[in-house]
């Protein structure tokens, strides 16, 4: 039956503002939005099932603001043509995106168009605080409905409420998280996937995490009881994407190694790759003990994993214990990293600066240890941030501790609270210094030599090195917020900041863009020359350094990783005791 009415559903994933107040947007952004993919899949399923009635169709538009400009006049005109019959859904809004999300919502609400907001900020605040804390009343004042929890199986009721003009102020499903088996597949149409670097998309094979890291919001929003998609679900979404030519995926599970269906999923992906001819390329996130799972790393390689992100977080066990990251065992770091390197898989590690035991001096020491002793490829630095929804934030909030009132800064690259052993300027300074300390010309050459010796894809490593070695210096942004060709408009400056004249803005922007790209081209040229020189070196395949040396029983005596901190020495002693009791394993 032909639809008599067309409900306009606009899904928007907001960006946030840079330090100058301009929206962060790129011609091609680096990271695909899994929240947007999940919500589009859910919305498309609702449209297919005609949940608003057989005579009412649903037109879905999606906008990832990190790579697409929000054209407000065009969108407002669209709703006007349909007499306001529709809904704007602000998707996956994180705390740093919350101010921008409110600014996006304001003109729609002024025009009488319903708006709903979901994501980690709303869900985290409602989960851990009093329901009014950290800016949620701004939603109420604007008449924005809030959605806490996950939308599978619930979104159709919200759509019906919006269509009948009865949208509730709050939809809270935090205590009733849905199962994932058989849920609509995350999906983004090809024209939107093409706006990301690497032409990749994402999906979550599981949600929730059993660990208790105090800085994490996932356990308080998605729960500590893990829920999973099946291998059939994963095959369906892979085939759905392959039908439009997409075969690269970021599996966004916080820890895929703890997904109880990991082996069935890997086996299915291996079959699709080796028998079905789908050239899968995957990035996954895992913990530091995944190498102990029999067959996990070998099957990851066969399934198409080319990059793995590891939440290393710190090399000081005292810091890890304070953050309740007790599952990270520094005595296993080298063994785990060498296992991934043996399969030719690139390793990326998250490293948090600002734990209680950190000082500028200890951070410089620890970065040097990582360079010398750990066979890591890419290190991503973050500031320890009390994100709303985390235990860290809840404790500071209850104490009335000083925290930055501007949520735009809660992007894990700005300092938002005080530290016992560093001033805020010192903390911010060592965060920015950390990038230049790790990505020195000498260490970049070392990384390329290690890649040549271990069979890593040097071309892929070079792409990552260009991004991670230059973005903080050139853009004053974390590399994960980066992309290709920064886009700005004078009209998109944060409300409250002065609007720059076009005559001043555009010449400066063009000159800055040309200068930055000249530096990037020079960096690429140097890396390509280094690769050429290394590959011509007859001894390239036999290169060895301390990091590539196999794990040895004497590591606990010779490695700074295990001897320079009290926690490191205690970790070695503990590993020894366990080994003596079980007869399995060694301290190194």
SS element count, helices: 22
Low-confidence runs of at least 5 consecutive residues = none
What name does the CATH topology of the domain at 5-172 carry?
Answer: Rossmann fold
In whole angstroms, the N-to-C terminal distance is 68 Å
- β-sheet strand percentage: 5-15%
CATH homologous superfamily assignment of the domain at 5-172: Cobalamin-binding domain
What is the CATH architecture annotation of the domain at 5-172? 3-Layer(aba) Sandwich
- Based on CA atoms alone, the radius of gyration comes out at 24 Å
**What is the strand arrangement across the widest sheet?**
3-1-4-5-6-7
> Tally of extended strands?
16
Protein name: Radical SAM core domain-containing protein
Keywords: Iron, Iron-sulfur, Metal-binding, S-adenosyl-L-methionine
Cofactor: [4Fe-4S] cluster
GO cellular component, one term: cytosol
Kindly list the characteristics that best describe this protein.
single chain; 588 residues; alpha/beta; Rossmann fold; 6-stranded parallel beta sheet; 16 strands; globular
TL;DR?
The chain has helices at 34-48, 72-81, 98-110, 120-128, 136-142, 155-163, 190-193, 218-221, 231-242, 262-274, 296-303, 317-322, 333-342, 360-373, 391-399, 424-438, 441-454, 458-475, 502-536, 555-558, 560-563, 566-582, and strands spanning 5-13, 25-29, 56-64, 86-90, 115-118, 145-148, 170-172, 201-203, 206-207, 227-228, 248-251, 281-286, 305-313, 346-353, 378-383, 483-487. The chain is α/β, with parallel strands linked by helices.
